[in-house]
């Protein structure tokens, strides 16, 4: 499934389409609704659909900068449900703008064409999933190095939405003990189960993810959580 197919499928969904905390860098719309367009060159710059279609620029942002279209969290979670990592072909190269790439293909693309290219860019995976402390410029010399360090484990490339750390207990998450909320953030199963017994929001983005907390079971079969797939 490519990004065009994902877009068509989620346009039919009547769900929340707000990017909480994301402000349009041109018209200052807060929050952005529907698609947001994240610049992969500027440190922290997003546009709403209207400003993107107008090819809006700023003192630092230029119209030729690669832009990544990102669905709102609810839409994104539904669009990517049951897809494997290699099937998530929604990422763009921040150096040349090539799009519709899975994370493995993005790494291969960077290896072939941009392995020695420096310059500050944003990681399309971190930006898409709002990875804490990694939504701005990458700290590594190249995107390829960043992908190898932050988005790869012994099993291959992964969509590591939390930087491999549970924000509840602040310890590393293994793929055998991970739970993903509808907003896309991942936690230890036991940690998030305990959290949601007293609260109804995601610990990271504060999105309301538990509409009926009183019916939440004590077991790991929580209907508001889904096993993350790598």
TrEMBL record:
MF terms in GO: ubiquitin protein ligase activity; zinc ion binding
SUPFAM superfamilies assigned to the protein according to its UniProt record, in alphabetical order: RING/U-box (SSF57850)
Domain of life: Eukaryota
Keywords: Metal-binding, Zinc, Zinc-finger
Keyword Zinc appears in the UniProt entry: yes
Keyword 4Fe-4S: no
InterPro entries: Di19_Zn-bd, RNF_E3_ubiq-protein_ligase, Znf_RING, Znf_RING/FYVE/PHD, Znf_ZZ, Znf_ZZ_sf
Gene3D superfamilies per the UniProt record, alphabetical: 3.30.60.90, Zinc/RING finger domain, C3HC4 (zinc finger)
A single GO BP: protein polyubiquitination
Positions of the ZZ-type domain: 19-75
Ranges of residues in domain RING-type: 166-206
Family: Belongs to the KCMF1 family.
PANTHER family the UniProt entry points to: RING-TYPE DOMAIN-CONTAINING PROTEIN, ZINC FINGER, RING/FYVE/PHD-TYPE
Protein known as: E3 ubiquitin-protein ligase KCMF1
